[in-house]
Specification:
This protein is α/β, with parallel strands linked by helices. The chain contains six helices and 13 strands. The strands form three sheets. Strands 1, 4, 5, 6, 7, 8, 9, 10 and 11 form a nine-stranded mixed β-sheet that branches. Strand 10 (about 155-160), helix 5 and strand 11 (about 175-185) form a beta-alpha-beta unit. It is globular, with a radius of gyration of 17 Å. The termini are far apart. The model has no long low-confidence stretch (mean pLDDT about 95). The protein binds 1-O-pyrophosphono-5-O-phosphono-alpha-D-ribofuranose and uracil.
C-alpha cells in the first residue's frame, strides 16, 4: 500500500516545534496529541458509518454517523501512549489495546513484554500508534502480533519515519496503510532518526 505523508502547514509547524530540543515535556506532550489528531482526521476517513434519524429544531432528517466500537487504538509502549488522547479527542469511545515493545540498545531488535488487546479485535480497524518508525522492527513485530490475535484491518500512524522503516513495514506487511507526518533522512549508527527529535519516550515522559 502507498504511504500517506502529510503535506499540511499546520502539521509541519507543529512537527518543527516537536523537534526543537528546547521544547519541554508538557509542550511536547501537547504537540504529540495535536499532531495525532490532525493525522487521525485523514487516517479515519474510511471508518464504518450508518444512517440515523436526527430531529433538528426545524425538521427530521437522515444523517450519517460513525459506527461506535469499530476502531481500536493500539499504542506501542511507551511512546505510543503519548498519541492516544489525540485519537480519543475524535473517537472518545474507542477501545485501547496495549503492546509493550522496546528496542534492545545493542541489537536494535524489538523485545515484546506486554500485550493486552480489546475483545473482537478481528472486527475492528486497528490503528497502531508510535511517534517513531526507525528500523521498523517494532512496528513489524507489533503488526505480526496483532495479526496473530486475528486483526484483519490494520493501519500504522507515526509522526516521524525513516525511509528504511517505511520500507521494512511495506515489505513485511504490504496490506497495512501507513500514515507519516514527516519522512526523515536516515538513521545514525545508534538507530536514531536524523534529523528526528531524539528519544520520543524520554521526551514525552521526562525520563532524561
Ligand atoms: C522507540 C519508538 C518505537 C521504536 C522505533 O521505542 O517509540 O517503538 O523505538 O524503533 P524501531 O523502528 O527501530 O523499532 P523504544 O524502543 O525506545 O522504547 P520506549 O518507548 O519504551 O522508550
Ligand atoms: N526511537 C526514538 O525514540 N527515536 C528515534 O530516533 C529512534 C527510535
Amino acid at each position: 500500500m502507498s504511504v500517506v505523508i502529510f503535506d499540511h502547514p499546520l502539521i509541519k509547524h507543529k512537527v518543527a516545534l516537536l523537534r526543537d530540543k528546547h521544547t519541554h515535556t508538557n509542550q511536547f506532550r501537547e504537540l504529540t496529541e495535536e499532531i495525532t489528531t490532525l493525522m487521525a482526521f485523514e487516517a479515519l476517513n474510511d471508518i464504518p458509518t450508518k444512517e440515523v434519524s436526527v430531529t433538528t429544531p426545524l425538521e427530521t432528517i437522515t444523517q450519517t454517523v460513525v459506527v461506535e466500537n469499530s476502531v481500536a487504538i493500539i499504542p506501542i509502549l511507551r511512546a505510543g501512549l503519548g498519541m492516544v488522547n489525540g485519537i480519543h479527542t475524535l473517537l472518545p469511545t474507542a477501545k485501547v489495546g496495549h503492546i509493550g515493545m522496546y528496542r534492545d540498545h545493542d541489537t536494535l531488535q524489538p523485545k515484546e513484554y506486554y500485550c493486552k488487546l480489546p475483545e473482537k479485535i478481528n472486527e475492528k480497524i486497528c490503528i497502531i500508534i508510535d511517534p517513531m518508525l526507525a528500523t521498523g522492527g517494532s512496528a513489524v513485530a507489533a503488526i505480526d502480533l496483532l495479526k496473530k490475535h486475528g486483526a484483519k484491518k490494520i493501519k500504522l500512524m507515526n509522526i516521524i519515519a525513516a525511509p528504511v522503516g517505511i520500507e521494512a513495514v511495506q515489505k513485511a506487511h504490504p496490506d497495512v496503510q501507513i500514515y507519516v507526518a514527516q519522512k526523515d533522512r536516515c538513521l545514525n549508527e545508534n538507530g536514531y532518526i536524523l534529523p528526528g527529535l531524539g528519544d520520543a519516550g524520554d521526551r514525552i515522559f521526562g525520563t532524561k
